# Entry
Amino acid sequence: MSVTSASRGPLNNKSNSNVSRSAKTARDVGARKTRRVAAELEEFLNVPVKPRRLESPLDCLIATLLSQNTNDRNSHRAWVTLRKRYPTWERVASAPTNSLAKAIEVGGLKNQKARRIKQILRGIKKQVGKYDLDKLKRKSDGEVLEYLTSMEGVGVKTAACVLVFSLGRDVFPVDTHIHRLCNRLGLVRTKNAEETFDAMQPLVPEGKAYSFHINLIRFGRSVCKAQNPLCGKCPLFDLCSFPVKEHFAQKTARTPTPERAGTDFMILHNLSVS
Ligand code: SF4
# Structure
């Protein structure tokens, strides 16, 4: 998503009267299907319990950056080591880049992430006068998205995670896995995660963005895997538009019933230092 479209925003635009009649019909159909899929997933995986919100948007932003291109366990280990070695953002900002990189190396891309974190902290200090993003608590979703994505290395997914996990907003973050699932299921027809983010916001039932986001991640890990989706065991089979689902259904008919991965570890649920 471009910053311009973020500010114009599907986030602020759930009832835009300018949409054409056919676009509105398509959106209504997509919204009905999305509601059914979200309800089926809650039936299959339960309604996820919301964790305690991360009070600090800056903590959430840095933790989400650490989670890029790695798994949740390693990014969590990187987070814990970072906060133990450098308990304040002042100390992170003044640490040598190579020492910072060493602290977060278990999460991968250590040099790039260390440089980016320092750069972001420098920018925040310059603009706000301190290492603090609490001012975002008083901004609209679109304004937060626009502000965060103006930072080097902060994309729409990262900004949306701050909106959900720190600010408690009803926004639906989209990573590459959720992009894949939304397209396989036929909720949208989009080329990348940013387009999916834009297209999905008006479709997700009000109040369900968090539940649908978490359950789709779990569902993608346990059933609708990237390479070998377990279509033969899928509770969404009848709703799904994936053109080769019959092929995968035959291939996976004998696969054991997948576990309901309700206890999957996710970094943004586990950000205390101890
Ligand atoms: S039918 Fe297959 S492709 Fe469709 S949602 Fe289920 S596992 Fe994924």
